[in-house]
TrEMBL record:
Transmembrane segments: none annotated. Gene3D superfamilies: NAD(P)-binding Rossmann-like Domain, ornithine cyclodeaminase, domain 1. GO terms for cellular component: cytoplasm. SUPFAM superfamilies: NAD(P)-binding Rossmann-fold domains. It comes from the Bacteria. The lineage of its organism: Bacteria, Pseudomonadati, Bacteroidota, Bacteroidia, Bacteroidales. Coiled coil: none annotated. This is Ornithine cyclodeaminase.
Amino acid sequence: MTIISTRDIESLCISPRTCVEWVKLSFMLKERAQLPPKVSVHPVCNDFFTTMPCLLPFDMNRFGVKIVSRILGRKPSLKSDLLLYDSTTGDLLALLSADWITSMRTGAVAALAIKTFRPSNVRKYSFIGLGATAKATLQCLIECSPNEKLNICLFRYKEQAENFVAYFAKYETVSFSIVDTMEELLKGAGVLVSCITDAQNLLVEDSSLFEPGILVVPVHTRGFQNCDLCFDKVFGDDIDHIKGFKYFTLFKDFDEFSNVLLEKCLGRKNDQERILSYNIGLGLHDIYFASRIYDLLIQKCPL
């Protein structure tokens, strides 16, 4: 059994664009994988330990399980580890630090959702919650859109927005603005990305602020329950992860993201549809990433 650290993974210099490709590939093999719903336990309040198993398709010979936890007061509060097995022998291949995997696959899924469901006439991308996940999302979006000019609007919170702008200073295709109200953030926005990890209430109580055609991507799912009731379409990464939502039975139109990528259902029909993309996070992506990383490290230096 090999221990693979975040530093080991970073040494591979895996690009954000590659992460988006891996996410798309893993979505497209979802039907052939065994993917039980994740299971969470809660020690206190909003702290949690979540277990995410996945058996990849038979020809890949890999099983894995990721455990992600959030503990208030720990630094960082979110942390994840992953066990990767050879499914033909049952041998434990590696214990991986999964923080990099979690951040990059989450950002890659969000970027892929944006590319898939955004309106064709989008001129403004709005972001609220500007931590590591938001950075990963925008990195993936930029690298998958090398010839596009991206106008990014940020919601001000402490020094986060200014630090976010500085972090992306090297990208010439991106321009930024910073606002102080949700009204300003949503005005003219074709895409809204929320990476807030803990929202107790609705982030936008007035649903009329969501203009026709907007795509809302609540990366951590919180704060947009009113959209469940009025948006034209809702897509999710896995129905078993979403069917327990309070308003699931009231969605106007629901399907899985993978079915859109496999062309089994239509994604956006027109630029007037308001679309919500709930991607709760699949162990499928984590285990696929871990498997590819393990193989790359073996090629680089036999473990």
